[in-house]
Amino acid sequence: MLPYPASATIETARLVLRPPRPRDLPALYAILGDRRAMRHTHAQRSLVACGLYARTHEKQRRRLGYAPWVIATRRDGRIIGWGGLYDDPFDPGWGAELAYFLARRAWGQGYASELAAACMALADGRLRLARVRGFAMPRNRGSRRVLEKAGFVAIGYVPAMRRQLFSRPRGGA
Asked: What is the tens place of the pLDDT at every residue in 56-78?
């Protein structure tokens, strides 16, 4: 039995975090396919590729009990991002990770930090994950700051990924 219902929705002060639905795909692609918004990672190259990406993560949710959520605002249900805890099926071997991808209109409003806090509460509590990792490009100050505020510590640079590796043990200790 999974430690957490895979279909669960989490609400924070301003956000609704929920598994994606097929009708969410165009809104997700508008974010995940936006090369400018995704400049510190990789942009999805087509709606079809984005759909495969989301479905592959959903398989992980059914297997592990967690995967990235659609990030929507509580106020109006507008989709503003994709993110959460996941074990990357496209680059395996890093264990549980935290990631967040937001629409440019949602930048600078604290949504990534709000998502990170909810994710770490879930990781520490119901999921009891021993460690969660995160990655950020050295020049991506905003993403590095989100990880640091959530209790992550930079532990090294991964040249093949051109990213700084961050880690946070359970409880942030």
From this structure: 999 999 888 899 999 999 999 99
Neighbours of 81 (CB within 10 A): 27
Q: pLDDT band for position 38 (50/70/90)? A: low
Which of 120, 123, 79, 127 has the alpha carbon at shortest distance from 101?
79
**Spatial separation of the C-alpha atoms in residues 29 and 27, rounded to whole Å:** 5
Superfamily of domain 10-129: Gcn5-related N-acetyltransferase (GNAT) (3.40.630.30)
Instruction: Write out the DSSP string of 62-112.
Output: HHHS---EEEEETTT--EEEEEEEE--SSS-SS-SEEEEEE-GGGTTSSHH
Q: Which amino acid is at 144?
A: R
Q: Closest Cα to residue 19, out of 84, 73, 74?
A: 84
> Cα separation of 170 and 112, whole Å?
19
- Identify which of 133, 121, 48 has the alpha carbon closest to the alpha carbon of residue 86: 133
Name the residue ranges covered by the structural domains of the chain: 10-129
Q: pLDDT digits over 154-164, tens only?
A: 999 999 888 89
Most confident by average pLDDT, 40-49, 71-80, 135-144 = 71-80
- SS3 state of residue 131: strand
